[in-house]
Amino acid sequence: MSNINFVPDDYVQSNESRRANLMCLVLFSVVMAALGGSFVTIKIRQRACSAEESLVNTKMVKMQEAIQKFEELQTKRKEMMKTALTTAELLEPVPRSVLLASLTNNLPAGVSLVKLSLVQKDPGDGTSKRRRSSKDKYATAKSGGTASAAPKQSREQRLETHMDIEGMAPSDIEVADYIEHLGDSVLLDNVALVESVEKKIEDTSYRLFKLKAMLAREVHLTKDDVDSIRAKAENSVYQF
Description:
It is a single chain. By secondary structure, this protein is α+β, with helices and mostly antiparallel strands. The chain has a domain at 89-143 and 156-232: Alpha-Beta Plaits. 53% of the residues lie in helices and 19% in strands. It contains 6 helices and 4 strands, in the order ααβααβαββα. A 4-stranded antiparallel β-sheet has the order 1-2-4-3. The longest helix has 80 residues, at 9-88. Mean pLDDT is 76; it is low at 127-135 and 146-150.
């Protein structure tokens, strides 16, 4: 006996259509949820990347400013050293390039020069008081004469060259070593410490020191002495 279906075909088709629509709706909801989750994840990552990029840009700006300041300092240092060397060639009795080379040769490890000032004074015009160094006394005693017996000198011969030296050092030990080295130099007399103060650059401490000295009187350097001093300073003074 054959089965007789009393359900109309329209009803069956309607049910199948509803099921198909429901399945499509569920699949559409799943896809939209996945897309929404992906969109939120991408936005979060974009914000994180933007924040990191801003941080990197800020660091780059600070580094550029630091590099620019360093370049400016280097430019000023080059100009200062060139000016000092140019002025040195015009002054007597010792070529200032030789004097600057000697100051550089005597630098202990870690010590650097920041500023050097040279002033010539006439001890007879009331601007400075004549100070006889140990070298002067030794020369006088060796010659058997006295200061009053010395021949009369011209104003140019009486000029004394006073120096103000500024520099940086890791500690006062290096400053003391530098003063000792300068005191042993045949070119300098009356080397004295003016001040030594502590400074900081970020987390690094250093000593900013100031010295006073005077160019030794009646210094006579041979060509070999000058060439030797300049040769020692070739890599430190003339190469900027």
